[in-house]
Write a structure and sequence with these properties.
The chain is mainly beta and about 90 residues long. The chain has a domain of about 60 residues: Alpha-Beta Plaits. It contains two helices and six strands, in the order βββαββαβ.
Amino acid sequence: MNTATLSYKKNGSQWSPKFVVSLDSKKCIACGRCYKGCPSGVMELSSEEDDEDNEIMFMQLVKDGECIGCKSCAMVCPKGCFEHIN
């Protein structure tokens, strides 16, 4: 991955994309805000059963290679589930 990617905003200031590398499913409350905010469709809703057969819903990275580094997911996440790199 090229970590030296640099872009410019409309006002001429520099901007460096920060690509998603992980999503903490233990923190995730499956609110869907990240899914709705992501322009690249990087996540999907998943589920698993806990030890008491309760269904636990959470978002999961499925196409992290498609991330454009906008951090929309992190900006709307109320639980701070995302980790990014540039």
